[in-house]
Amino acid sequence: MLNKLGTTHSRLKVITFIIPAVFLILILRLFYWMILRGPELQTKSDRQHQMVTILKAKRGNILDSEGGVLAGTKNLYHLFVYKPQLTISKNDLVEQLIGSLTPDGEASTEGDLRKYLQDRLSLTSNWISLKHYLSPEDKVKIENQKIAGLGFEDEYVRYYPESSMAAQVLGFVGQDAAGQEQGYFGMEGYFDRILKGREGKVRTEKDGKGNPILIGNYQFLHAVEGKPVNTTIDKKIQYIAENYLKEGMARYGAVAGTVIVMEVKTGKIRAMAAYPNYDPGKFSEFDNRVYKSPMVADLFEPGSIFKPLVMAAALNEDLITPETKCDICSGPIVIGKYSIKTWDEKYNPSSTMLDVIVHSDNTGMVFVARKLGPDKFSEYLKKYGFGQKSKIEIQEEVSGTVRDGKNYGEIDLATNSFGQGIAVTPIQMISALNTIANNGKYISPTLVEGNQGITRDVLGPKAV
What we know:
Penicillin-binding protein 2a (Domain 2); alpha+beta; 5-stranded mixed sheet; 3-stranded antiparallel sheet; Beta-lactamase; 464 residues
């Protein structure tokens, strides 16, 4: 009797242990499937039972200063067929479409187009894409035939009506790693988020064969068009600048060149020309080295065009006057193992500062730089905007570097005085020179109408 009671008691202990353990395992499994794996399984379920159609957003235009289109978006159409709604045979459909579709690169002849459509219609899916990028004219021709089962979706294509004009200002539109439209370089890259807008979505339920359930759940999110960008580019001035650039390059046998036209008082860029250039609408056909804008992305030694900036700084500090005589201009200046000479190796011991500028005298500029000293020299370069980005609205801008005064050696100060041993961008250079034209006030350059540039006083008014 005692043995039976003991056995029963042991069994109750086992059952008491097993039941909670089973419940614990069930709870853990529920936690795993509902909490840890729940979102993943929900996503898989949605994919099996829902159909999502992306509605492309129309990209905003880039406009010139008068509202003309520099980069625009064509509204084209995607033709598709929903086979369950067809009321004619596939062959009849092909023959009717042949007369309305324009052959293109995908199918360049009528025979190629016929075969292409037949191949598409032989697919087993109920919904079939037939043709991308139909013109509005082709769309109207097909609609006039009133063929049941055919439908259209909006598609957009970027175009550049002026071809290569202002190419490095504009940039181009390509695709990112995920196949999504994206702006690259120039203003297309800089303003990509503003220009691209926001895609829309249509979410519908589908049956086991992938067909939409017309009475199922339906969600619609409108696409939002991208915003336009109004530039300061004057198309007429841009055209003239590009032509003069090509003529100048041909005359002097140059392989590359840039031209920038800047409005003195406002900092508005009226033209930015560079060569070699490319056609943004056919960018893949060009060497990718021409994509960047050399006006903001390339550094160069400015040479003698740098001299007025150094001279103006010394005049502003009252260290010289136009009549100040250079006392080291009688011959080459030797600094260590270096010898600084004039460009024509002619020297004038009685040169005034006015003579130094007129004759582009390197030795005279060394005299001026020494008057300024390394600290003031470096300070003025930074005030002119060197060593920092101008913040002009183009992708890929670089800043270059400017030494602090304490890092200047004697030879560095000397060569920098006539624009050698220092690297600047063309946009920095024109903005700095504009400071002199603008009565000593620096104004940052801009390519966008309505943008207010950064201004600062660099040079005070002087009676000379």
